[in-house]
TrEMBL record:
Cited InterPro entries: PMP3
Identification of the protein by name: YqaE/Pmp3 family membrane protein
Organism of origin: Nostoc paludosum FACHB-159
Entry annotated with the keyword Nuclease: no
Record-stated family: Belongs to the UPF0057 (PMP3) family.
Amino acid sequence: MDLVRILCAIFIPPLGVFLQVGFGLDFWINILLTLFGYIPGIIHAVWVIAKK
């Protein structure tokens, strides 16, 4: 299942975070990072998925 989350995180970073933690603080941080830049959103999403 982590592979699916990481693939989602690469294409749609907030979706990957949502699948991991739901509507938590990490999700909203990822939304902001993705709006500021696509690459920071991907890095944060992969980090959130990998740490849990």
